[in-house]
From TrEMBL:
The keyword Oxidoreductase applies. Pfam families: Dioxygenase_C. This is Protocatechuate 3,4-dioxygenase beta subunit. Keywords: Dioxygenase, Oxidoreductase. Residues 46-104 are annotated as: Disordered. One of its GO terms (molecular function) is oxidoreductase activity, acting on single donors with incorporation of molecular oxygen, incorporation of two atoms of oxygen. Residues 46-84 have a biased composition (Low complexity). The lineage of its organism: Bacteria, Pseudomonadati, Pseudomonadota, Alphaproteobacteria, Sphingomonadales. The keyword Oxidoreductase applies. It comes from the Bacteria.
Amino acid sequence: MMDHQDAHDLGLAHDLKAMTQLASRRRALGWFAGASGAAMLAACDGGSGDSATSGSAGTATATPTPTPSATATPTPSATATSGSCVVDPTETNGPYPADGTNTSSGVTSNVLTAANVVRSDIRSSFLGSSTATAAGVEVVLTLTLVDVNAACAPLAGYAIYIWHCDRDGKYSLYDLPAESYLRGVGVTDSNGQVRFTTIFPGCYAGRWPHIHFEVFSSLANATGGRYATLVSQLAMPSAACSTVYNGASGYSTSVRNLAGVSLSSDNVFGDNSSAQIAQQTPVMSGSVAAGYTATAVIGIAR
């Protein structure tokens, strides 16, 4: 058996080393004792809010709440649904708006500033000396304006200006400068609705049959001109177009023009989503003889 060497009488150098190690062990034991005591005190404190900032070892740093990344919750697009409505897309107001934004034959027309522009039946001319009434199949159109960002809640007190061509595909104040029919403004009621009596528009070459409209946040803004919240269009239903054009007098040119266009190839409606097209297309019922009723929802995001 190997003899163990005694740990004494090994000289001054050895003694100094041993004393240093002993002192280090005592300091370590003292530190652990202090830490254990602090831990016990913290446990007895029950985790109160004050313990986070007490003590002499330093100030505790709060753990930050993670911030969601920018892509965690996508921002809804312009066609995002809320309930059963979508935001109507912005469309061109075309070359014949008579809203003060363009000229015809050097004259700027702005029916929005006319005193009698607010009217429900828009079939007759109301400016100048003409009182002519546009001929065609009657359509009673009810528009419901809703807020897509508020679960399709109706918007009351808004003004909607509509205009469209006659059964020959011509626009008043432009193709027919002496006439001002098929134009008018209505104010939405408590149900967000406004009603117009008009005619079924004709189909002219290169465009799907349509009705233009502009939405204003108030009648004052509408009659002030150039303050539209939304400029867009309604697409007439295909089945109704075929029935009216083939069954009513005065629409003969529309039969030929309709055969040369489609919703998908139309330069306004062609790039819209199916949800947008569905909302932009009025729901219609009736007949050529009795006339039609039509309803459509217009969605805006406030």
